[in-house]
Backbone:
């Protein structure tokens, strides 16, 4: 379905929880978030119904997000339900990787086709500091389990932060040489706790390794390969090179609010709707998608929620 700016909306990012097993400093408060009553978030059945209605509106790719989707009770049931919807060409999931060692194979069997794993540092002490409660070794065990389960095209999401991981850019590039993964460097956005971290443009990756060879882009990413590398490198630049003109996604929060744009306060409630009414509400959300964000002008996101409350 085309929005009013002639963009074809084919991608749904569907949050299944706002809870997370980690407490990353740019994303979550140190003491976590208040626990919600289960009635305040969408049930597995509601999430599948929302995905089905979105597919009726032209969506072909669904990504499950959080919080951390693997802490959601019934996550495998949700995956199976969405993967079985006719018209879903790709079911992806973004995770911090901490529970992947246990769940990689069941996720693959439930119909998940590809994984994105968040990993902002390769140094154990920094990982423990940034996540407050995490262990780097758990992520690498999860990455190995994903490969053993048959996942391909795995992407490692690295949020660039000046003064924290900018000195690790060569290490991440080396990771893309040794493994068949895409290491994606993502510019930090001024949303929630992210407003307090130090911005670093993705162009710093090219400065650190001018030998990177450009490839055809994929979605919103500029892509490269190190000479002789097995994997690839992606640059995601929401601040430096706005990709709003080609944005093909909508988001739905765990409590059932459709956000036409991540950085807009506008939300359309989908809970309690079904059938034609649900489809029309999603169409209205697509029609309301703004032309672009204004973070470059204002220095902040208008999202109105933290990333864990929207869906990473």
Residues:
């Amino acid at each position: 379905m085309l929005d009013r700016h002639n963009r074809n909306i084919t991608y749904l990012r569907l949050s299944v929880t706002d809870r997370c097993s980690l407490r990353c400093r740019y994303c979550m408060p140190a003491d976590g978030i208040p626990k919600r009553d289960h009635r305040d978030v969408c049930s597995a059945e509601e999430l599948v119904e929302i995905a089905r209605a979105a597919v009726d509106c032209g969506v072909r790719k669904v990504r499950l997000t959080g919080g951390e989707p693997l802490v959601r009770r019934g996550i495998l049931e949700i995956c199976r339900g969405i993967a079985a919807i006719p018209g879903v060409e790709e079911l992806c999931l973004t995770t911090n990787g901490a529970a992947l060692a246990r769940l990689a194979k069941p996720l693959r069997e439930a119909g998940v086709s590809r994984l994105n794993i968040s990993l902002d540092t390769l140094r154990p002490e920094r990982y423990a500091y940034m996540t407050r409660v995490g262990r780097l070794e758990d992520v690498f065990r999860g990455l190995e389990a994903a490969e053993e389960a048959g996942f391909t095209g795995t992407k490692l999401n690295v949020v660039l932060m000046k003064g924290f991981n900018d000195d690790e850019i060569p290490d991440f590039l080396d990771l893309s040489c040794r493994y068949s993964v895409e290491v994606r460097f993502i510019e930090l956005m001024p949303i929630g706790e992210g407003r307090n971290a130090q911005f670093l443009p993705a162009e710093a990756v090219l400065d650190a390794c001018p030998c990177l060879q450009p490839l055809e882009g994929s979605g919103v990413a500029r892509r490269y390969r190190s000479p002789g590398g097995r994997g690839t490198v992606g640059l995601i630049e929401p601040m430096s090179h706005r990709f709003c003109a080609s944005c093909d996604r909508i988001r739905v929060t765990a409590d059932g609010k459709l956000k036409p744009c991540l950085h807009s306060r506008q939300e359309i409630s989908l809970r309690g709707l079904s059938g034609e009414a649900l489809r029309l509400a999603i169409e209205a959300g697509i029609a309301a998608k703004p032309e672009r964000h204004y973070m470059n002008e204002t220095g902040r996101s208008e999202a109105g929620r933290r990333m864990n409350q929207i869906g990473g």
Remarks:
- The first strand starts at residue 11 and ends at 15.
- The chain has one domain: 11-310.
- Residues 49 and 274 are 8 Å apart (CA to CA).
